[in-house]
Amino acid sequence: MSGQSLPRDAGRLLSPEAESRIFLRLRATIAWETLRSMLSSARLRLTLVILLSMMFWGSLYGLFVESFTFLDSLYTEVISFLFNAFFSSLMVMLIFSTGILVYSGMYSSPESRLLLTLPARSEAIFSHKFQEAIWFSSWGFVLLGSPMLVAYGVVREAPWTYFLLLLPFMLSFVVIPATLGSICCMAMVAWLPKLRLHALSIAVTVACIAALWLGWSAMAPGRTAHPSSAWLEETFLRLSVTEQKLFPSWWLSSGLIESARKGTPAESFASLLDALKFLALLIANGMLLQLLAAWLAGHSYRLGYSQLLGEVPRRRRRPISWFDRTLTHAGSAAGRPLRLLLVKDLRLFRRDVAQWSQFVIFFGLLGLYFLNLQSFYYNNIYASLIGFLNLAVVGLILSTFTTRFVFPMISLEGRRFWILGLLPVHRDQIVWSKFLFSFLGSLLPCCSLVLLSDLMLGIPLAVMLIHELCCVMLCLGLSGIAVGLGARMPDLRESSPSKLSSGFGGTLSLVLSATYIMVVVSVAAIPTHLFLAMHVLGSGTAGQGFLAWASGWQGTVASLVLVVTVGALATALPLRLGIKAFRKLEP
Amino acid sequence: MIEFDHMTRTYGPKLAVADLTLAIPRGELFALLGPNGAGKTTTIKILVGLLQPSRGAVRVCGFDLVRDPRNAHLHIGYVPDEPCLYDKLTGREFLWFIADMFGMPKHPAEQHIAKEIEHFELGEFVDDLAESYSLGMKQRLVFAAALLHNPDVLVLDEPMVGLDPRSVRIVKDLLKARTQDGMTVFMSTHTLAMAEEMADRVGIMVRGQLRFLGTIAELREQMALETMSLEQLYLQLTSSQSSPPPRDRPDGVS
């Protein structure tokens, strides 16, 4: 080997355009490689994602076509209100989500540590991380917003220019809140380092309270009970705050409505010109904010990064919580190792903000939605239907958590396996501790949410009990599937939970969980609905033979027995498979 | 090449590096030694522009790291203690990215990349994705990337972590050759033997202060005077009760 160096011919500072090209090439290469590895190793997941996205898009499109057709016949002004409310709430969400993504990309990622030691402009690094963040924060907007806007254009029979302008309108809009979020993030890190956490928590709290207030005031029962025209007017009056003409959301709504307007050729042309003016307004403001953000990055990024890196973590002595102490010492000595493992997992969960914050956000949003259910009026059939749908939603959200956080738990023990392996603990107990952790942890929030939904819907006690039983079986089965498959298909060398959950095992766990939820909810829902159809709506003439049996108490009991049997199988089989495999596992 | 000018860095109330004044000339291999928490990593992070000094200045090839970081970075190659790569890039793609960022023209970049692949024996895996690399492979690739633009100053933070003995030998030979060519190396290490074998001068840092600065010969001289082994002397210098050794400060330190 020779240590001779080559002649020095490097050392040229790049132009901004050249830097942009290099970062663009970097992102394109990474995206291509990611897609290639997904195509080769995660085809099932990719196919599922594409199929589910298409189904989701199609369902939303259908729903929006129906809704716009209905609303169009009532008031044309309604659309403007709806667009403003939708886009303004989206704007607030994009400010927060992009701010958080820019923070993690620019200040806490290993990549930023590399980039800051290269002769790259701070503005270029910001732009690179911003483009990454805007992609992650706004794809949901495209998935949710595009069926709505396409459906609007189809219902209004909008000219072709409307469809042509959709994408430019959406893209130019998302840049504004995303850049605002980035500016707030960089300014806070550079100039309010001590206040950063406080400022963020205050801002999030204020936004949550505002969202709660808006949601509540829009949905709370007013003077008029039914969703009549008076009720709509009252609701729109409450939402008028979103109609501020200085909001980019108003520019977007107005631009879209103008571009969809029909009329004589002269009128259409005038509307198109108006729409283009709104588009220009969005683009101009987006560009201005981008300039401001780039200037800020140039002046504050390195300073902010240095301040953040130089922060001394507060050393807090953590006393053992009363809950951990009680759990450790309660019960027999024989069960103590299991309880100690439970306490360990509980501590890790409590100290991992990513886990519990997602748990709180998703279940919190669901709780908020359930709280608003009583604003509407249902007959028994609809109440029961919505009750079972809510049960399925709780199950589906729980399944995403069990797949994302519980399935990888055994694999994540891989690097620490020597600790567990040397302890006087039977391997089965490790698997059981994960199962108990998942089951006990999910039981209370899920059952409470289902109870809340039933109370808000005014569902009879007997049906409430059926829902609760189903919920317990869902918690059992979903925990069994995630822990069992996690132990059956561990990857002890992988340290990233997201990679573990997005691999084959994780995807299989998600698919099985979704199937299990559908089976449990359908089996429990069918006799209840038959009963309501027969006895409440008075169509009892068809109540003969199997239908009479299924809609009676025998049918309900049989369905519950089936639910419990399916639940027991979904819990026991994967766990048994997992425990057997885990006993033989060689780390 | 490297100048620390009354550089101080604090973390809140804690003093991490205190009034460091130090000049390291062209072609010198300088090893910074010290126990955990002595301020070595802080010094290195300031030297590569990740941290900014609370007071004072740091210059590389005359460029101030705070005022003119881009020009300073053109002259620096950095090997961190934890290698950072893009999982979804191959080793070769990563080297091209670094070459592009340093503005290297295509043809010389090709030559440099081929040469570094050969130096660090990366050929077997350089076209695989970095996500499949072991720690040693990653570290070798990061070395290659740091040397790609033939920097005037190479900054190494615990450079031998994760390297096998053969790779350690490769790196040592390479550093010797490059310093003879005029490259300045600033290295932090826990390994006394490494500093003894490689360094022209060593600095021993304790609680943010430079307790000793001199050549290995000067350190040995002191060792002979006090009938101590190198390890004993190091332990005495870095112990919490010790005061700075009773000797004249050498040139380059205040």
Distance between the termini of chain B: 18 Å
DSSP, total strands of chain A: 0
Which outline of chain B best applies?
globular
**Count of DSSP E strands of chain B?**
10
Largest sheet of chain A: none
Low-confidence stretches of chain A: 1-7
- Indicate the radius of gyration of chain A in whole angstroms: 28 Å
Into which percent range does the helicity of residues of chain B fall? 25-40%
Share in helix of chain A: over 70%
* Helix and strand element order of chain A: HHHHHHHHHHHHHHHHHHHHHH
Strand content of chain B: 15-25%
Account of the protein in words:
The complex is a heterodimer of chains A (587) and B (254). Chain A is an all-alpha fold. Chain A has 22 helices and no strands. Chain A has two domains: 76-309, no CATH class; 328-584, no CATH class. Chain A has helices at 16-41, 43-74, 77-107, 110-115, 122-155, 160-191, 196-219, 229-238, 248-260, 265-309, 322-329, 336-351, 353-371, 380-406, 409-412, 417-422, 427-457, 461-488, 497-502, 504-536, 545-551, 553-584. In chain A, helix 11 (322-329) runs antiparallel to helix 12 (336-351). Chain A is globular, with a radius of gyration of 28 Å. Mean pLDDT of chain A is 81; it is low at 1-7. Chain B has 254 residues and is α/β, with parallel strands linked by helices. Chain B has a six-stranded mixed β-sheet with strand order 6-7-8-3-9-10, sandwiched between helices. Chain B has a four-stranded antiparallel β-sheet with strand order 2-1-4-5. In chain B, helix 6 (165-180) links the parallel strand 7 and strand 8. The longest helix of chain B is centred in the last third of the chain and has 16 residues, at 165-180. The radius of gyration of chain B is 19 Å and the shape is globular. Residues 244-254 of chain B have low confidence and may be disordered. At the A-B interface, helix 1, helix 4 and helix 10 of A face strand 1, helix 2, helix 3, helix 4 and helix 6 of B.
